[in-house]
Write a structure and sequence with these properties.
With 414 residues, the chain is mainly alpha-helical. α13 crosses α18.
């Protein structure tokens, strides 16, 4: 709008409004204060009044023919950015901004009694100024929102690295991390890490089971922290208390007692169909790093439709962490074993693994469709060649590590 296009009636009205700008602003502020997010505890009176005074003044002057488009645009964007930092919801901000048209129109009509019809041709001009202001406010808001999100992600990444680095027992760090990551300050916690092939739908899949789980991303790795308050008890109830109690008692792997152990079984059961690695429980935030590392390693063993947990994959983790020592252990135990025909080796390993899964020769015979004596003979043959007896618990644990190391060597894994 330029000076020549301003009607005489609009010019007179604008002069009067600018003279009464403080009064108009006060009335405007009283209406804005009724909106969500504009209470005085959030935005000080001076802030709201000063912002409205400047905004209305710029719009009146632009309507009066001054070329203030750039100045108003910059001011409007600054409003949007500032309100993000003050926590004003976008909907409330836009409602406040769109009130400008009504207040400008009413202020002009109040100061031009009996001349309202002369302003009818100026409605579009007034609307365009208010809409340009609204668009710029929203643009500034969205830009700042993106900046805030980026800052939050940077803060989260910093806190996550400190928290997951291990060896940091800093209570202040724990408080800051719990607040920024929106996780409870007290445990127990479980960590689930996505296999790299299942990262895309990981967050949705986990929150389908645990709506309160906190899903995070660090250095390209998708993972979730599931607290004892994330709805685990609901899963436990649906699985049947007696079944969970039995499973918890037999696993003996969580290192927790009472309800925490039972909850741990519930977490693992609830995530059993996802391609993730699931840790044991972390009692405190200071021990979360070890569980994150555990879940990350387990995730590599997860396959589509089946999670990886420590109770099933501990031999492979032992092999990985022992490195050359595990390889040497396997080489020593299987040196004579390697001299047997490959078909016989396969039969012996099959019998040993099926037997160790239950500890019963009869059950193993049922699974392999052979006589119980056949199973016992194969176990004895393995023991004589490898020097490790599958029927002896200590030897059975060593056999699991030996076979995991042998398979890792065959697959080219360290």
């Amino acid at each position: 709008m330029n000076d020549e296009s301003v009607s005489p009636a609009l010019r007179r009205g604008i002069r009067s409004c600018l003279a009464d700008l403080d009064e108009i602003t006060t009335l405007y502020v009283s209406q804005v204060r009724t909106l969500t997010g504009y209470v005085e505890s959030v935005i000080a009176e001076r802030d709201v009044h000063s912002t409205a005074f400047t905004t209305l003044g710029l719009m009146f002057r632009q309507l009066g023919g001054e070329r203030l488009e750039d100045e108003l645009r910059a001011h409007s964007r600054a409003i949007g950015r500032k309100r993000v930092r003050q926590g004003v919801p976008l909907e409330s901000l836009l409602r406040a901004v769109r009130m400008d048209f009504r207040f400008i129109w009413q202020a002009l009509n109040d100061r031009l009694p009996g001349e309202a019809d002369r302003l009818s041709d100026d409605v579009v001009a007034i609307w365009e100024v208010v809409e340009a202001h609204t668009t710029s406010v929203q643009s500034g808001y969205m830009l700042e929102l993106g900046q805030v999100k980026a800052e939050l992600e940077q803060e989260q990444a910093f806190l996550l690295r400190r928290l997951l680095r291990g060896g940091v027992d800093d209570s202040q760090l724990h408080v800051q991390a719990a607040e920024a990551l929106e996780i409870p300050l007290t445990g127990p916690y479980w960590v689930a890490v996505a296999h790299q092939d299942a990262a895309a739908g990981f967050a949705a899949d986990v929150q389908d089971v645990f709506p309160a789980a906190v899903c995070l991303r660090l250095d390209g790795v998708e993972f979730a922290v599931i607290a004892g308050t994330s709805g685990v008890s609901g899963v436990a109830g649906s699985s049947g208390a007696s079944g969970l109690s039995s499973a918890s008692g037999s696993s003996g792997s969580s290192g927790s007692s009472g309800s925490s152990g039972s909850l741990g079984v519930s977490v693992q059961l609830a995530l059993a169909d996802l391609q993730v690695g699931v840790s044991q429980s972390a009692a405190t935030l200071s021990s979360l790093s070890e569980m994150w590392q555990l879940a990350s390693e387990l995730a590599e063993f997860a396959v589509p439709g089946r999670a990886a947990v420590l109770a099933q994959h501990w031999p492979s983790l032992v092999v990985r962490r022992l490195g050359p020592v595990a390889s040497s252990l396997a080489a020593d135990a299987l040196r004579d074993f390697a001299l047997l025909p490959s078909s016989e080796r396969d039969l012996l390993v099959e019998a040993v693994e099926v037997y160790m899964a239950s500890g019963s020769a009869s059950k193993a015979a049922g699974v392999l469709f052979c006589h119980r004596n056949t199973i016992m003979n194969r176990l004895a043959k393995f023991a004589s060649v490898a020097g490790l007896d599958p029927t002896v618990p200590d030897d059975a644990a060593t056999i699991k590590v030996v076979l995991a190391a042998a398979r890792g060597a065959e697959d080219g894994r360290p």
